Structure formats: C-alpha cells, structure tokens
Amino acid sequence: MSNTTPSAREAADLAGQQLAAMPDSPVPPAIFVNVADIPWSSFPGHEHCAQFKLLRIDPATLGHTMLFRYRTGVGAHRHLGEVEILNLSPTGHWSYVGEGTSGPGDYTYEYAGSTHVAITENDEWGEALIISRGPLQMINEDGSPGFVVDAFAYYHAAAANNAVGHLPYPFTR
C-alpha cells in the first residue's frame, strides 16, 4: 500500500474514470447558488426582527433551507417539524428562554412540537443556516395558536422580493 496522496489532477482523472464507468443517472446535476446574489426578504409578520434568504424547498416534503437573519422580537412559536440551526454569527449569541444559548458556530437541533421564545443578547442582527422539515406556527399573546408560516409563505414573500430565481422547478415562476 502506498502512502502517497494523489495530486488534485490525478484525483480528478480518477473521479472522471469512475463517473464514466457508471450508468447514466436520472438524477439532475447539483445546483450551485451564489447566496450573495439573493436579496434578503422579510419574514412574514415580523419584518422588524427577521429576514431570510430561501435557498431550497423540498417539493416532496415542503421542508426548506434558508439563511435567517434575526434579532429579538419574533415571539413565541412552535415548530411543527424538526429544525436544525447552525449559528453563523461571528460574535452573537441567541437563546431560548429557559432552554439554552447558542454562540458562534454552535449547532442546535429542535424537535417537532418544540415551543419557545428566542432572544438575542443585543439588538444587532444575528445570522443562521436553518434546515426546517416543517412549518412554524406563531403563538398569539394569549397563548392561542397563531398564523402558520410554511414553505409556501416563505416562497411568496421571497417571490414578492424577486428572490426566487435560483429555485428549481416546481418553485419557479
């Protein structure tokens, strides 16, 4: 066994040979998105404290992936599907009242049905990558269920901001 690592060119050649030997695949090619070109859109009903860049919607499950910019004010909400969050803020922290705190680079997993209020340590915008497998239900001040924000709500808000051109069919105009 050799301890030499192939050069980038050798690795690319080998990968090309392996791909050429594989049967044709009905799977479409990877989608590459320049996130910097997507404008920030306002989070429905919470324009003062939440913005997003919709990166993907799964047409089978309506789960969605987004960059999310936030600060205190979103209020109580319930996740109707599992959620994964990667805190991308270089210095900011956010927390769920009574649960825990997320700092720079931290990962958070939320179970479907979890209900909480998010707060930030100051009024500066934080940023996170969110992978959500279901809608978000807002909770009214009296504790009753509020409006639901699902993949379609995010899509329509982003479309109104001309921020969906990168999404593949069926989520294109």
Descriptive account of the structure:
By secondary structure, the protein is mostly beta strands. The protein is built from 2 helices and 12 strands, in the order αββββββββββββα. The protein has a domain at 57-159: Jelly Rolls, CATH 2.60.120. It has helices at 8-21, 151-159; strands at residues 41-42, 50-57, 64-70, 76-79, 83-87, 94-96, 100-102, 107-110, 115-120, 126-132, 136-139, 145-149. The protein has a 6-stranded antiparallel sheet with strand order 1-2-3-10-5-8, covered by helices on one side. A 6-stranded antiparallel sheet has the order 7-6-9-4-11-12. A hairpin with a 5-residue loop joins β11 (136-139) and β12.
Note the main attributes of this structure:
single chain, 173 residues, mainly beta, Jelly Rolls, 6-stranded antiparallel sheet, globular
Structural class: mainly beta
CATH topology of the domain at 57-159: Jelly Rolls
Shape: globular
What's the rounded overall pLDDT mean? 87
Largest β-sheet summary:
6 strands, antiparallel
The percent range for strand residues is: 25-35%
CATH architecture of the domain at 57-159: Sandwich
Provide the CATH superfamily of the domain at 57-159.
Jelly Rolls
Counting copies of identical and different chains, the oligomeric state is single chain
Helical percentage: 10-25%
Q: What's the helix count?
A: 2
